[in-house]
Design brief:
Strand content: 25-35%
Helix content: 40-55%
Order of helices and strands: HHEEHEEHEHH
Number of helices: 6
Largest sheet: 5 strands, mixed
Structural class: alpha/beta
Distance between the termini: 29 Å
Number of domains: 1
Length: 149
């Protein structure tokens, strides 16, 4: 259900309704675990109480011709896994997911603003952006941790 709500919210946004990019954030898989086990599931070596790992990251970026120019279009997927030592951390982790969504939407706006004179130049950029998407998401995750901690 949450997956559908996110998709509807994205479609109802005036800016993203005209977007050539779609973001599919799956419903978070939430698991309560012992604090001592968090480092086994989370990408950190520091003591924490909760984390959200984003698996299944994928950006399918492609090119299409619009009004005599080549532009980028595509879709992305994220599958969040929340690991919590206590349910009180769930809302905090949801804030991180919302922040990642906002950063990804801003990134899509940047991609959408680009145009190319040739199909090959567009394809090269699309291939590059698809290949580095997980690295960009790592950066967005780092920014989210700096912002919310």
């Amino acid at each position: 259900m949450k997956r559908l709500v996110i998709a509807l919210a994205l479609l109802s946004s005036p800016l993203l309704a005209q977007s050539r990019f779609a973001l599919d954030i799956h419903r978070a898989n939430v698991t309560l675990i012992a604090t001592s086990d968090l480092q086994l599931h989370c990408s950190t070596s520091v003591p924490i109480e909760a984390c959200t790992e984003i698996l299944g990251l994928r950006l399918d970026c492609r090119c299409r011709r619009e009004e005599g120019r080549w532009v980028l279009a595509g879709s992305a997927q994220m599958i969040p896994y929340m690991y919590l030592s206590n349910m009180r951390w769930k809302s905090h982790e949801e804030e991180h997911l919302d922040d990642l969504r906002q950063q990804t939407e801003a990134y899509f706006e940047d991609l959408q603003a680009r145009s190319f004179n040739s199909e090959q130049a567009c394809r090269d950029e699309a291939d590059f952006e698809s290949a580095v998407f997980s690295l960009r998401m790592d950066l967005f995750r780092h920014r989210s941790n700096e912002k919310l901690h």
